[in-house]
Write a structure and sequence with these properties.
This protein has helices at 15-27, 38-44, 64-72, 91-100, 112-127, and strands spanning 7-11, 31-35, 51-54, 82-86, 104-107. It is built from five helices and five strands. It starts with 6 loop residues before the first strand and ends with a helix. The protein is an alpha/beta fold. The longest helix is centred in the last third of the chain and has 16 residues, at 112-127. The chain has a single domain (7-127), classed as Response regulator (Rossmann fold).
């Protein structure tokens, strides 16, 4: 039986962060789509990721909260789980992420084992 690689869309304006995420995720067998801003993320959504890792602060018109709200209000994409990962660790920042429709919120710097466990949990839950 051939198992399809799960595809993860990573959205972060920091190239070093994108490279780190790609290395961690590809090592675990995930296919990674990297984008650096909200506009690129909305364009890449047509590649049908199984999960989105979304930074909150990004340049341009659309931050992570905006992207999440747009996706969660679109019937084609609202079931894709979104994990916010951000340096913003204040309670109101985390609450804003959940109110926008995020499924999880991880603060930077993050523990890669914890991140991978959450990704596995969400991709398994939403693929059932």
């Amino acid at each position: 039986m051939v198992t399809k690689k799960k595809r993860i869309l990573v959205v972060d304006d920091e190239p070093d962060q994108l490279e780190l995420m790609q290395t961690i995720l590809e090592h675990e067998g995930y296919e990674v789509i990297n984008t650096q801003n909200g506009k690129q993320a909305l364009e890449a959504i047509s590649q049908k990721p199984d999960l989105i890792l979304l930074d909150i602060r990004m340049p341009g018109e659309l931050n992570g909260i905006d992207v999440c709200k747009r996706l969660k209000n679109d019937s084609k994409y609202k079931s894709i789980p979104i994990i916010f990962f951000s340096a913003k660790a204040l309670e109101h920042n985390i609450e804003e992420g959940f109110q926008a429709g995020g499924d999880e919120y991880i603060t930077k710097p993050f523990n890669s084992t914890n991140l991978l466990n959450i990704i596995e949990k969400l991709t398994t839950k939403y693929s059932l």
